[in-house]
Design a protein that fits this description.
Blueprint: H1 26-54, E1 75-80, H2 87-97, E2 101-107, E3 122-125, H3 131-141, E4 146-149, E5 157-161
Parallel strand pairs: 1-2, 1-5, 3-4
Antiparallel strand pairs: 3-5
């Protein structure tokens, strides 16, 4: 203690002994870094899943099983480019009566949401495992319906109704 200053109540406090903090070794630093990394990974994963759920694009879905080709489980999406009144309704009924699940039904539009008119009706399959079901759907819709492979459309099987689609009179 310095001799320049007078004695006060802090000088009368009993002195504590020893070191108050353990020396940090390389092992301690590595363990601390691993803890920080684990916490960051957990927080990042929760954030990523939360954003995917908020974006309605859930990471963990049962639709990732593209190998199954069971007719009753295959969803058929119908996009209308025909400009024919009630064409979508009748095509949807035909698909349902054949035992397929009906997915989304919408008008065929471009990126600016302008309607697209198609001349020919076609059926598009997502991959080879859906080709057989796509051919069955094409047969339901008419004799001249083409079947193609493409991953540009929303469902496992997508029907693109064109102006050549024939409404069946009841």
């Amino acid at each position: 203690m310095s001799e320049k200053f007078p004695v006060d109540e802090f000088d009368l406090v009993e002195k504590h002994g020893g070191r108050h903090r353990e020396l940090r070794s390389a092992k301690h630093r590595v363990i601390e870094w691993l803890r920080i990394f684990a916490v960051a990974a957990v927080v990042g994963t929760i954030g990523y899943i939360g954003l995917k759920i908020a974006d309605n694009n859930v990471v963990f879905t049962e639709s990732l099983n593209f190998g199954s080709s069971a007719t009753a489980e295959t969803k058929v999406t119908i996009l209308d480019g025909s400009d024919i009144p009630e064409a979508v309704g009748q095509a949807g009924e035909q698909v349902l009566q054949a035992g397929f699940k009906l997915g989304d039904v919408a008008e065929l539009v471009d990126l600016e949401r302008n309607p697209i008119a198609l001349a020919n009706t076609s059926v598009v399959a997502l991959n080879d495992s859906y080709l057989e079901d796509a051919a069955a759907v094409a047969k339901l819709l008419g004799t001249d319906v083409q079947v193609a492979l493409s991953n540009e459309y929303p469902g496992p099987i997508t029907v693109l109704l064109g102006a050549d689609y024939k409404i069946i009179e009841k």
